[in-house]
């Protein structure tokens, strides 16, 4: 397998085409507003960005927001990207803008997939989290339209204290809806997101083990976002199984993801290895700012001054994020740092330092334990 060199280009580019949205989600990192910002990237600027992505030969482009459907030119931009050979997906909000006519337009221009958010197995939980009564019903109607149009469905779910007790019901719903992918997000306290709405570090681990078990029998793919330590849980089980079978032979952690089916994006291609903020993953804001991710709002440049391809390769911030040996605390000493690395977004949100350890990981690396023992002996 020929691996993508994340030092040269990203695997995924997220473009926040607008921050306008009619929902009022409790966790919204964009703190979305009703009206569009007049300084958003223009249609021509968007096409220039798409040209740049196309010449990088490979990155997938995701239109996000806010609500992408708040832009009148979104299908023009989508068609342009498809014509340039870019794989495109969209994450619209469940509002009255999601009509069957708009979905037909998306299919006609060649969008690979639509993704909808469902954050609870019923309207009470989902609507509360989305801050808008009727959001659940609108989402279900939209999913029915997708089925009628025979378009693949991806469900995004944000894990929080509001739905942590309903994982089995959520998984069954994803199964029943015939989804190709369940993208499970883990809350980062930025924007409207609050640390008090997050699940505990121990609960993170419980969810990872649930997903790891589920992936073996589910008819859909499973992908995690802002949960890089899920990879560590999957890899730990693989190591245990190999040791039990007598086939374990000093696995190279940095290469192991080539055989791990945990970053599947069915219908859009597979990430050959795990992505992280600024490391295979990059975000362009509605104003053109380039961030390691939308949940890590540290500007690395602006595409109005330099092309994204230039910023991604040469930004010192992004270069540092692509070097796990520079991570601080236990993340920097962890034997899984090349396949995990922890959420840089969550580290920044909680500690103010994007190179600090993942604050919601329970794992104690061997080198870290030894380091702590030495410090204790000295003191």
Automatic annotation (TrEMBL):
The keyword S-adenosyl-L-methionine applies. It holds the Pfam family Radical_SAM. Its cofactor is [4Fe-4S] cluster. Residues 7-223 form the Radical SAM core domain. Keywords: 4Fe-4S, Iron, Iron-sulfur, Metal-binding, S-adenosyl-L-methionine. GO terms for molecular function: 4 iron, 4 sulfur cluster binding; catalytic activity; metal ion binding. It comes from the Bacteria. The keyword Isomerase does not apply. InterPro entries: Aldolase_TIM, PqqE-like, Radical_SAM_PqqE_MftC-like, rSAM, rSAM_sf. This is Radical SAM/SPASM domain-containing protein. It comes from Macrococcoides goetzii.
